[in-house]
Amino acid sequence: MEELISIIAKGLVEDKDAVTVTVGPTTEDRTVVYHLHVGPQDMGRVIGKQGRIAKAIRTIVRASAGQTGEKSIVEID
Questions:
Q1: Whole-model pTM above 0.85?
Q2: CA torsion sign, 39 to 77 to 68 to 52?
């Protein structure tokens, strides 16, 4: 899942080396939290107008995780 998030984010940003994805601790209801880190100059590109791109990224990851039977959340840091 980290690779999927990384590929999507690297397609959006200019500084591809600054993109990192880390996995946070699993919550009580077995939800996996992924933290997406990008450079400060690329933050707007990943979030998008009114958060539309961020919402789309979260939707794709949630759908992909649903196929394997897990729950996931993407946090953009």
A1: yes
A2: negative
